[in-house]
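Here comes a specimen:
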Amino acid sequence: MDTLKLILRQGIGHARTRADAGRTAARARLAFLALLAAVAGALFASSLFSYLLFHALVELATISIACTLFILTWNSRQYLANGYLRLLGIGYGAIAVIDLMHTLTFKGMSIIPGAGANLPTQLWIAARYLQAITLVAAPLCIERPINDRLVVVGYAVAVSALVAAILGGHFPDCYLEGKGLTDFKIGSEYLITALLLAAMYLLQRARRHFNDSVFWLISCSVACTIVSEICFTAYVSVYGPANMIGHYAKLAAFYLIYRAVLVTGFIHPFQLIFRDLKQSEDALRESNKTLEETAHARIDELLAREARYRSVIGNAPVVIHQVDRNGTFTMSEGKGLAALNLVPGEVVGQSIFERYRAYPDFCASVRQAMLGKRRSANALIDGIHFEIYFSLVPGTDDAPELLAVAIDVSERKRMELALHEKEAAETANRAKSVFLSSVSHELRTPLNAILGFADLLRHDAGISSAQREQLEVIHHSGAHLLRLINDILDISRIEAGRVQLPRAPFDLTALVDSLLAANSPAACAKGLQLNLERSPEVPRYVWGAETRLRQALGKLLDNAIKYTSQGSVTLHLSASPNPVGSQLRIAVEDTGAGIAADDQTLVFDAFVQAGANSSQQGTGLGLAITRKLVELMGGQIGVVSQPGQGSCFVIDLPVELADPSDVNGAPDNTTEVLGLAPAQPDWRILVYAEQPETDLSLVRLLQETGFEVHATADSSEVIQHFQKWQPHLIWLDRVQPLPEGLAAIREIRALAGGAQVKIVALANSALAGQRTQMLAAGIDEVLHRPFRPDEIFACLERLLDARFLRWQAEPVAATSARPDRAALAALPEALRHDFADALLRLDSERIGALIRQIGEHDAALGRILRSHADNFDFAWIETALHDAGATPPLAD
């Protein structure tokens, strides 16, 4: 109860104190208002008695305020960081000087004899200009350091200049007796008003640098100054009411500045003088807060790093031991401890020498490491191979301790053993390959003699037909054995790493055409259709190992024809761009018996025959050689097959594009057709083209050359145009669907003049296998896309006997990488026969000596023969010698 009474008394006391403070503040406000009313009444009474007295009192009051403002500002400038208030204090001091002169020269004061109303009015305008400029400039100095002494000197110079201009008669008149204010004076008041409005705008933008009371006091002061200036534009007499109202407004403006700068600035210094100090304190507090947050974040980061470190140490597949100088464990961590049937920290406090006493070599290494004599060691502990690294680190009492990090290298040891075994196997394989190579060469010597004698006897007219059949069997069997030996020689050279892949530019189109031509007789003999499907994107000239690519594709085509009893064999060529040139895809597809899925993984192994036809004659080396050659060229080979549906062997091979001028034997592109030669018929060509690009390119090519061309895209109009126009040649861009197209061709051939017209089909690569059908239906020639202009002109020369005017460029020098027959035939006959005999006997020393002799006759030929001999390519040399007319003598 007593406590409640005490609380009530305290509450009543606080309420009374607040009430007393409120009453005191209200009385102060009433006293202030009463004082203002008394001053205003006194000034008004003085104006009734004498306007001159009213004017003097108002001006002296404003001058006193301005001087007081200057003195206090100057003496306390070191406390005022706000440049706005400092500039106002100095500026108003300068204004007070001119206002004092204005007061002393006012009309009726009689201090300066003969002075009228113009002089004080001029001084008034000068003071107001100075006041307006000061109020405009002050906001710009809030955050800029100002030199107070330079500012005082500047104002002194400005006051002196204004006074000198006024007294010297150089300042414009502001008041004329009998007329009143001049236009300059009125315009100046308006200009000063505009400057004051600008000062209020700048003050508003800088509001954050003032507290509310100072801001509103300064704003009201500027507003009163604007009212004063407007009033001074409206009076005619210096004693008029407008003049008097203007002075009241001026007095109020100066008083408000007094309240803003002096009363608020010095009675409440913690709000202005120490405002920057408070802001600095706030900034410091904020900085401290930021530092604390940064420190906490750093501590959290360090804790997280420590946690990660402990996690790494605990999960690392290593064993980490740390022991003191006595060999006692102080730390035991690492995931590798599980392999030793230990858990982290289990052995801490135990002796490392007791724990590993079964491994004396390891304990000896630890003792040496503790003396700084060993940095690493190898140990086999519990069947695990460890690599151990030692280092001395500071302990808990700064005494050195031994840190041992053991890494499980058992897997690496197993890999090293496997690698060693692999190298041993590869060495044995290379030795086997060298042996097979030597044996193969030894077998070739008697085999060449057998084939040579059999060949001679086959052409002997004195043998009987039965003997001739027996010789055919001998020759066929010998040739098969020779192919087997060559395959064995190839696979042994590849496995021994002695196969070279000389890169050179070559004509891919010519290579494919020659392969198809070489395999066509075998295909026709079995009744098979040999097709070609070539994409337009396939490049013609490429860089690569032409001989090896020919060998690989030849084996694939040979196998496809050999193991296909009916249907077709198709060679597919396509290409796609890659970073170095083109990615070539070659596929050989047949309609044979196919290969079972289980056998598809075996077909590329040496000496293996898989599939339904595995019992057929063969060495089992063809696909193995093909795969190794493709891999040596940087490609890959695979097979897709279904039993009963055939097989498709696919080669993916990267090739680099070549320039046609670099290819020996490439078509001569240095000639350009300029047009038709004179004295020829007016050749008429009918073009049927469904594809717009063909219509544009082909028709324009023919027209620019000089042919009369008529093009149509409607197949039904071809026969009509032929009957009406009678063209010399019909160019069919499309003959699909094939039956309808062939029927139209036969109909044209049956019409008048149809037997004489030439018909050419520009077919897609997919139609290559239907060439025979198209020629049988009456088409004279078939060209494949993409066509080249030289192919078009060559076709027209063959079919129409058309002649062209050509422009011949300078020939491009080219060298051949292969010797022609003339190079070998030019050698002395005895030298050629000796060389052939050495090849037959595979006498390597004699072959080398004879190649050196050939190099003395023809250095280029010697280098080429040496390259082939180094690569064991003796079959190529024998063929070249045979073509040059060198027949080896019979072996002894």
Observations:
- The radius of gyration is 57 Å.
